[in-house]
Amino acid sequence: MPDNKIITDREEMLKAVRDPLQGGGWALKYASDSLKADREVVLAAVRNTYYALQFASDSLKADREVVLEALKEFGLALQFADDTLKADREVVLQAVRGGGYFNFADDILKADREFVLEVIRTDGNAFQYTTDFLKADREVAFEAVRNASCMINHASEKLKNDPELKKLAEG
Question: Which helix (H) or strand (E) segment is 160 a member of?
C-alpha cells in the first residue's frame, strides 16, 4: 500500500490482497485488526503470498485450512503458524513438500521415528533437525543419506564411521 494507511473497508482490502499492484497478500499488513481476523480476507491474502500469514490474527494462524492454504504457496509459512499446528502431521508434511522447513515442526514430531522416516523420504535434509536419538538410528540415517548424501555429517559419530553409510554417501 503506497500510503501505508490502515484499511478498514473489507471490499477495499479484498481487492488489495488479490491485486499484486496493490500489494497482493502483503497488503494484509495494513488491514485493521478486524480484517486480519476475517477468514475470507486472510485466505485471499495467503493464496497470493504465504507471507501474509504473518499478519493474520492469532486465531487464523491456528486455523488449519488457512495455514494449509498458505503452505500450498510455500512451506516457509509454517514459521507463522500457531504452535498447535506445528505438531500436526499433515500440516508439517505439507510444509516439507513445499520446500522443507522441518526445522519449524514441533519437537514431538522431530522425535517420532515413523514420521521422521516419512519426512526424510520427501526431504532428506530434514534429518538434520531430528533428535540425537534418531541421528543414531541406522535405518533413519541410511534413508536420509540415500536422499541427501551430505546428511552423513548429521549422523551420530558411530554412524559417520559406518562403512556402508560412508559408501552410500560417496555414491
Answer: helix 157-160
Confidence check: pLDDT of 90 > 80:
yes
User: CA dist 51 to 8, 41, 57, 61, 65, Å?
Assistant: 20, 14, 13, 12, 16
User: Grid coordinates representing 82?
Assistant: 500457531
**Contact assessment for residue 1 and residue 23, using Cβ atoms and an 8 Å cutoff:** yes
Neighbours of 87 (CB within 10 A): 15
φ/ψ of 111, rounded to 5, equals -105, 0
Judge whether 52 and 42 are in contact, CB under 8 Å: yes
Residue 103 has a pLDDT of: 97
H or E stretch at 1: none
Q: Count CB-CB contacts under 10 A for residue 160.
A: 15
| Orientation of helix 64-73 relative to helix 39-48, angle to 10° | 20
Task: Determine if the pTM surpasses 0.85.
Answer: yes
Q: What are phi and psi of 17, to 5 degrees?
A: -75, -20
Q: Is the pLDDT of residue 2 over 60?
A: no
Is the pLDDT confidence value at 1 over 80?
A: no
